[in-house]
Amino acid sequence: MAHTHVPQRRNFLKLSARLAALGLTGLGLGPSRKFFTADVSAAAHVSDYKALVCLYLFGGNDSNNMIVPVDTARYAAYQSTRGGLALTGSKLLSPIPDAAGSPYALHYGLAELNQLYSTGHLAFVLNVGQLNRPLTRDQYLQGVSAPSNLFSHSDQTTQAQTGTSLPSASGWGGRLLDLFGATDTLAAVSVSSPALFLQGVDVRGNVIPPGANLSLSGMSFWPPQAADARRQAVNAMVLLDGGNPVREAANQSFADGLQLADTLQSNGSLPPLSVSFPGTSIGNQLKEVARLMRVRSQMGPGRQVFFCSMGGFDTHSSQDWTHWNLLQQLSQGLAAFATATQELGLAQQVTAFTQSEFNRTMQSNGSGSDHAWGSHQLVLGGAVRGGIYGQMPTFAFAGPSDANNRGVWIPTISSAQFGATLGRWFGASPGELGWAFPNLTQFPTANVGFML
Question: Quick one: which H or E segment has residue 352?
Answer without folding.
Answer: strand 350-355
